[in-house]
Specification:
287 residues, Pathogenesis-related Protein p14a, alpha+beta, SH3 type barrels, elongated
Length: 287
């Protein structure tokens, strides 16, 4: 083949190759366009079919489980329980308050009546007993004998004020001398206190007697507790000696049935008891 023919053949092949390349490029371009159209169209379809305003979720809202419903009252109960734990415990019955207006009984075995008409006697008050005055009218004084009991006493059997000529420490020193083998250490500290405080130290006293106002707890050690509304009001010692009481000076009242010495906040009284002397240390809430 001549040189001219070779050159012509090469040009023909070059044109053919260029045409082929152009076709390939057009194919690639067309494929890209088609792919773009498909992608865009597909995205538009997805957007149109998932419009939030028209979409219906197939995921159910969480349902209340019975167990979970029951947890709420349990939580409230737990909170209530915690609150109860934080609340202070109810205080035990402590000292009775002092009486703002008091009446002191001035004779032994004083009759206390159910009403101002003296229809019936409900209680025999002891010498020196002190009670709160509720009112007074027509010669009768209305008394509060305990939390549950009220009564009326003639005005002539009480007085509204009592002198305190003796120091409490003198009363206690005399008590220590006239009571042999004192079984109670510092008995004054239990007056006005709940019975449980005494029993925690000395144990419960088995034998008891009651009247309309008080409960009397007897000990085999020769003493008894006078308790009203759960509070120790007085302590009595039996078989005591009255000879040393003269050191206290003049009593408030002295009779053949009882003698009453008045201190600042305490009383010391002596009563004849089957040929011996019963000695009583009492608190005075009216002072």
């Amino acid at each position: 083949m001549s040189q001219n023919e070779q050159q012509t053949e090469q040009e023909r092949l070059s044109r053919k190759e260029r045409r082929k390349q152009k076709r390939n490029r057009r194919s690639v371009a067309l494929g890209g366009i088609l792919a773009t159209v498909l992608i865009v169209g597909g995205w538009g379809y997805m957007v149109s079919t998932n419009d939030a305003s028209q979409a219906t979720s197939t995921v159910e809202s969480p349902k209340s489980v019975d167990g979970e419903k029951e947890k709420e009252p349990k939580t409230e109960k737990s909170a209530s329980t915690d609150q109860k734990k934080k609340e202070p415990k109810a205080k035990k019955k402590a000292d009775k308050p002092e009486i703002s207006q008091a009446a002191w009984v001035t004779r032994p075995f004083a009759d206390v009546y159910q009403d101002a008409n003296r229809s019936s006697v409900i209680y025999k008050a002891d010498l020196g007993d002190v009670y709160e005055i509720l009112d007074a009218e027509n010669g009768m004084v209305h008394l509060k004998l305990s939390d549950a009991v009220e009564g009326y006493i003639p005005e002539t059997d009480v007085r509204m004020d009592v002198p305190s000529d003796v120091k409490d420490k003198t009363l206690l020193a005399t008590l220590q001398q006239v009571v042999a083998n004192q079984p109670i250490e510092k008995p004054e500290q239990y007056l006005g206190q709940p019975l449980e405080k005494f029993e925690a130290k000395y144990g419960a006293l088995g034998n008891t007697q009651k009247d309309a106002v008080n409960t009397y707890h007897f000990s085999n050690a020769g003493y008894l507790l006078v308790v009203s509304d759960g509070i120790i009001e007085a302590i009595d010692w039996t078989n005591a000696s009255a000879s040393g009481l003269s050191a206290l000076g003049e009593p408030v009242v002295e009779t053949s049935y009882g003698t009453w010495y008045q201190g600042e906040k305490l009383q010391l009284k002596a009563f004849p008891d089957n040929g011996s002397t019963r000695l009583r240390l009492a608190r005075d809430p009216g002072k």
